[in-house]
Structure formats: C-alpha cells, structure tokens
Design brief:
This protein has helices at residues 15-35, 40-56, 62-73, 102-118, 130-146, 150-172, 177-204, 238-255, 262-282, 285-307, 309-319, 321-328, 333-339, 345-362, 373-377, 387-391, 398-429, 434-453, 465-481, 485-492, and strands at residues 79-82, 96-99, 219-221, 228-230. By secondary structure, it is an all-alpha fold. A hairpin with a 6-residue loop joins strand 3 and strand 4. Helix 1 (15-35) runs antiparallel to helix 2 (40-56), helix 7 (177-204) crosses helix 9 and helix 18 (434-453) packs antiparallel against helix 19 (465-481). The N and C termini lie close together (9 Å).
C-alpha cells in the first residue's frame, strides 16, 4: 500500500465556499471587536471558539477539520484554570484546566452524536482497555475523597476525565483508513512545528515570544562561564517536550520504511530530522537514550527483513557510531549534559523514590490522592536530603507516581490498560501490509520510549493529551489491521 496520507478527495473551491467566507467575515469581525476588550486568555478562547463555530458552517468535511485542529492543538499549552487556587506546593493543575484541545474535542463528540442520530448509525464505542481504565478512574475518585485536599484532587480528576474522553474518541471514532492517514500527517506536522520552535529557541536563546502558547523561560544551568540552555517548545518544560518527541519520533522514523512517493519521503526525512534536533536541544538524557534505543530497534527490524540478520547487525553498529561521536567527540552541550553538569539531579531521583516507597507502604490501596503528592509527600520524606521540599516536585518515575497518588489498585489497572493497548497493536505489527506494519511498530516503540523515559522523569500523565490520543489511535490501527483481508482491501481502494 502506498502512503497517500489521505485518500479522501479534496473538494474544489466553489461559489458557496466563497459566499460563506464573505458572510462569516462580518460576525467574526464583530466578535473580534467585542472580545478584544477582555483579558488575553479569554480573548483567545472566545475568539477561537467563534472561528471554529463559523467554520462549522463551511462546506467542508467537519470531522476532518476538527480532527486536524484537535491533533495540532494537543502540544499547545494554552489553557484556562477555572476556580484557580494558589499553592506553594507543586501541583499537576491548580484549577479545572480548560485546554485549547478541548474545543475541537467537544465539537467532534457533537458531530459524532449528531451523525449517529441523523444517519441512524450505531454509536460504537471501543471496549479495548475500558474496564481497567474505569478501575483507574474509580481509584482516582476514591483517592480524591480520602485526600488531604480534595479540591486539588478534583482538579486533577477533571483532567483525567478529559483524557479518558480523548482516548475513547480516538479509539472509537477514527474508524476509516483515510482518517488514520489524516491523523498521521497532522501528527508529523505537529512534530515539525515543535522541532522548528525548539531549534529557534535554542539558536535565539529566547522563548520566541511564545509564552502565551505555553513556552517557558529557558532552563539554564551556569557553572562558572559555561551555560547550558534547554528549550521546551510550547510544552513548557524541556523534559515534557522530550516526552512528546518520545511518542512521535519512532512513529515518524518507522514511516520512512513505507512505500511512498519520493517527494513525500524527502519531506518526512526533513520532519524527522527537525524532531531529532529538537529532542537533542532539550538536553533530556532520558529522552535521547529512549528514542535512540527505539530508533535502533526499528532500524534493525526493517534492515533484517531486507538484508538478513548479519548485515542488519553490522549496519546498526555502523549507524551507532554517530551518537558515540557526539558523546565522546569534541565538546558539546549534549556531552556536557551527560557527563559534566548533572548537579546531582540524577542522584536526587533516588531519595525521591525512597519517599514514594514510604508513601506506598503507608497508603497502599488508594494513595495520597490525585494532585496531593508533593504536599503530603513531605510527611514521608525521611531522607537526609529532604528531597521533596528541596525539589518541590513529585517522584520522577511514572509508575511510582501513579501508585503514590491513587494506590497499587490504580497502578495495577493502569498497567493492565497499557498491556491491552500493546496487545491490540500486535495484529498491525504482524500485518503483511508494510505501511500498516510500520505504523503499528512506530506506535508501539513510541509508547515504549515514552514509558522508559518516564521512569526517570516527572510526567503529568493525566494532562498529557498526546499520550492519550496516541493510545486511542493504537486501538484504531489495531482494529483496522484485524479486519478480514477482503474488507480491508476494500478500505484501501
């Protein structure tokens, strides 16, 4: 199968669309004048809401339009915190977080329901992973009820609810092959944008004026005259941007082995290159190592199919010389980050884990409550370093963090949920179709890279929209790959 990215024909510009553009301009202009008097965050949300509402009246495929908006908005850190509560402790969120991506997500649910009603279609919801996910949500709810500060717990429970809705939509409503192609194209576009922003931030030594969209001030470490500058794109923290690249770089790299037009492959090479450079300038050691291992596995798997085991092994060894030259060659910021300027951050993760184990021993069933870890964790910090007040941060290990907040029951259900996603991807990885197999392998190794990296870095798991969307996409890809060959061939035509 060639990769046309989208097999749905694009409608030609017609007089109706031109008329709609003229008519829509008047109310949009009036809306702009009205909301321009508000605070910038409210201005952006209301004006964007008006634009998306006006776009709903345009003669275009509304589902494709809002699906594109949803994927593009996932890594953009524009949000409102309703009922905002200040806190001296590190929190996942300090209010009911209304994120930019929730606007197209809500619209997509409306479109989905409307089409099911008007066209009398069954409202089919994928059940893959739903039961353990329900247990995760139930454990989170109980943990909030038992938490020291239930209000902050409710904030994070709301975010978890939105994440589950995002997963359900991607797993259930992305059912056609052209929709998968559209999503892949948009994901690669999003990765290119974040890569370009990261490179620009690194070269300019600034946020590029993107603070409103989620960019944070540079993370600098300055020993003497040496300065290491880390960038975070529009996701804020460098490690968060690295986690974003963890998910998408293996997917993009795996797609390079699909049969596609030369121009498209060249463009994809440039996109993956931007992502790799973007990951490098985050200076995230966990991200660089995790992605490097994932890309090596993809390279070995694909070359073994084409050249055999021995030649593939030699090729991987030869390809591995490049990162070794970066690490052990002339002095550079990546080398300094790995070997010189650690400032105890790697060692500091060990006492953080000791605190997490203390919490789990004392509250094994439902933890300390969502969004309560840093505040309550100080009571269980018996380390000489007093690491929790020093860092004011949760443990840098996703599974320990989940167990500490919602207990071992919630962690067990979360692991079963992830296992269900991996299992549903197996038919795609084993597919005789090279494109489907590449998509499945890329999604799987992106997820594994993310999970391995998140064992040594903090991950705000309930708010990481790209993770939840890709988990749902994995279910959709696995379902498409499981279709009988006759039906599947029909969908490819």
């Amino acid at each position: 199968m060639a990769m046309p990215w989208t097999e749905k024909p694009v409608a030609a510009v017609c007089p109706d669309s031109l008329l709609w553009s003229l008519l829509a301009g008047v109310p949009i202009g009036l809306l702009f004048l009205i909301v321009a008097q508000l605070e910038s965050k409210w201005f952006f949300f209301l004006f964007l809401g008006g634009l998306t509402l006006a776009a709903s009246l345009a003669p275009v495929d509304r589902k494709a339009y809002y699906l594109t908006l949803l994927v593009l908005s996932l890594p953009i850190g524009v949000d409102l915190n309703l009922h905002f509560q200040p806190s001296t402790f590190r929190r996942s969120t300090q209010g009911f977080s209304i994120q930019l991506s929730q606007i197209p997500l809500a619209t997509l649910y409306v479109i989905w329901g409307f089409r099911c009603i008007t066209q009398r279609l069954p409202f089919r919801v994928s059940t893959t992973g739903l039961f353990p996910l329900l247990v995760v949500f139930t454990s989170g709810t109980i943990s909030v009820l038992l938490a020291k500060d239930p209000l902050f717990g409710a904030f994070d429970l709301f975010s978890l609810s939105v994440a589950i809705l995002l997963f359900i939509y991607a797993a259930s409503a992305v059912r056609e092959l052209w929709e998968v192609h559209l999503v892949l194209f948009t994901l690669m576009t999003s990765m290119a944008i974040q890569g370009i922003i990261a490179i620009g931030q690194h070269l300019s030594g600034s946020t590029l004026g993107l603070e409103f969209f989620g960019a944070s001030e540079r993370f600098n470490t300055t020993p003497g005259l040496a300065a290491l500058t880390r960038v975070g794109g529009t996701l804020g923290h460098p490690n968060t941007l690295a986690l974003f690249f963890d998910l998408l770089l293996p997917l993009g790299f795996s797609l390079l082995f699909c049969p596609m037009r030369k121009r498209l492959k060249l463009l994809l090479i440039l996109v993956v290159g931007c992502g790799m450079i973007g990951l490098a300038v985050t200076l995230s050691r966990g991200g660089i190592l995790s992605v490097g291992l994932a890309l090596t596995i993809i390279l070995f798997a694909r070359w073994r199919e084409r050249t055999g085991l021995l030649r593939a092994s030699l090729a991987v060894v030869a390809a591995g010389m490049l990162p070794l030259l970066v690490l052990f060659g002339p002095s550079n910021s990546i080398q300094e980050r790995f070997f010189e300027h650690d400032y105890g951050s790697a060692y500091g993760r060990i006492p953080h884990m000791q605190v997490a184990f203390n919490i789990i021993r004392h509250k094994p069933f439902f933890g300390v409550g969502l969004n309560n870890y840093t505040e309550v964790g100080r009571q269980y910090d018996h380390t000489p370093e007093q690491i929790v007040p020093l860092w004011n941060s949760p443990v840098h290990n996703l599974f320990l963090f989940v167990a500490g907040e919602i207990g071992l029951i919630g962690l067990g259900a979360f692991l079963l949920f992830l296992l269900a996603i991996v299992r549903t991807l197996l038919p795609a990885i084993r597919s005789p179709d090279p494109a489907v197999a590449s998509i499945g392998l890329g999604l799987l190794l992106g997820l594994l890279a993310f999970l391995s990296h998140s064992q040594v870095d903090y991950c705000n798991w309930s708010l990481f929209g790209t993770l939840w969307f890709l988990l749902g996409l994995a279910v959709s890809v696995g379902r498409l790959a499981s279709l009988p060959s006759v039906t599947y061939t029909k969908r490819l035509s």
